[in-house]
Amino acid sequence: MNAANSSKILSAKAIDGRRKADDILAEIKTSAAGLKALRDITPGIAVVIVGDDPASKVYVAAKGRAAKACGFHSVTHVLPGTASSDTILKLIGDLNADPNIHGILVQLPLPSHVDPATVIQAISPAKDVDGFHYLNVGRIAAGSFADAFIPCTPAGAMKLLEDVAGSDLSGLNAVVVGRSNIVGKPMAHLLLAANATVTVAHSRSADLAGLCRTADILVAAVGKPRLIRGDWIKPGAIVIDVGINRVAGSDGGGKTDLVGDVAFDEAIPVAAAITPVPGGVGPMTIAMLIQNTLRAATISQGVRDG
Fold first, then answer.
1. 63 is a catalytic site residue
2. Parallel, antiparallel, or unpaired for β 245-248 and 256-259?
3. For the chain, where are the alpha helices, taking DSSP H only?
4. Which is the catalytic residue, given 128, 130, 216, 261?
5. Which of 107, 128, 216, 261 is catalytic?
6. Is 107 in the active site?
7. What is the pLDDT of residues 115-128, one digit of tens each?
8. In this structure, how many other beta carbons lie within 10 angstroms of the beta carbon of residue 204?
9. Which of 125, 150, 172, 301 is deepest in the core (most CB within 10 A)?
10. Cβ of 142: how many Cβ atoms within 10 Å?
11. Sequence-distant (≥ 6) Cβ neighbours of residue 212 within 8 angstroms
12. Active-site choice (63, 127, 185, 234)
């Protein structure tokens, strides 16, 4: 196969998360301008980062750029890695009480001496735009999506999936590889709500490859680079790769590459569609965060979007 034909196949099968995210952010910018004009409210988001993890800094900077591009009020609070839990909780309390802040997120991971659950649960559920507070988790589990902030990564993944497969997944088997509270579990609830038949697989599952081969929709969210091989994928399946893993660069020059949980080059000849890494679910995660913040600002004015 020549390079031109290969490029055409990749462009036909790869799901463009960047383009979809850009479209959503453009809509958010328009809606935010309308909120400002009608209610004199500027959506405000605050990000708390503790320590100097390089990857966290990159993610936080990208979130800040997207928020400001949409006309939001965006602030970042950087605390030293030695900051105590009391210091972090005091800051969250101040942000909870700040009427100019509608969304709060704490960038994970936190230093080992800080309990992440204690910190996350201190965020007001009305400002929990990451969707990690137990109140939002419970609402999602109960199927009360209109009253919840849905975690950004599974919400973005579902947007991409809907563009390919539609909003009604009746009759389709979905396999989610990964059972985290951040991605795997909420993703399963969203797929169930779309009428898919859902299996949640994980490290203790027997015959993981065999389970994957049953999937019309395969969601990889396990955090292991290229774990899912091409021969694990059912021909014609839709593959949503949530994994973001750094591996040694293919050029051997000491640089690293970003890869997903799926062996992309092996999956392309088999799958009907697949999200690439980077450029797939990642940009959608940021777009959904900004969308949740706009929604929080709107709800703060007594307007609900149903």
1. yes
2. antiparallel
3. 3-13, 17-39, 54-69, 85-97, 116-121, 134-141, 152-165, 184-193, 208-212, 264-267, 281-300
4. 130
5. 107
6. yes
7. 999 999 999 999 99
8. 7
9. 150
10. 11
11. 175, 177, 201, 218, 228, 232, 233, 234
12. 63
